[in-house]
Amino acid sequence: MLVVLAGLAGAGVWMFNNVSEERRAVQHRQMLVDVGRQTALNLTTIDHTTVNADIERILTGSVGDFHDDFEKRAGEFVAAVAESQSKSVGTVTEAGLESQDGESADVLVAVAVQTSLAGAEEAQPRAWRMRITVTQPPGQEAKVSNVQFVP
Fold it and tell me: Structurally, how many domains does the chain consist of?
């Protein structure tokens, strides 16, 4: 009887650990998708009145070549947004984890983007799809390391 109870207790601990690990994995995958989703919103919600803060938000959430390239082009981008007095608002319509490997994951995000320009008639929303690579080295915050537009 004691052996049976010990076996059941061991099985219970093993099952609890497996459930806990699976729960952590599900939460981690959701966090990666959330980072991709927020990045898509940051990239598609830009207002000429807040463009510097909008750019800073994108840079704060990115790393590597993507960060460096975006930072290099930020001045031209700010000037173009200010000159056209544009305002765009992105709405994520769908997001999901495409793949995950080690420290990186690819998140697919579909976004509807409504853009308005000063003096122009309001255009219909555009549908964009993005593959956003989220990188999270051990012990660090997850950030975006690449963005590709998907046809």
Answer: 1
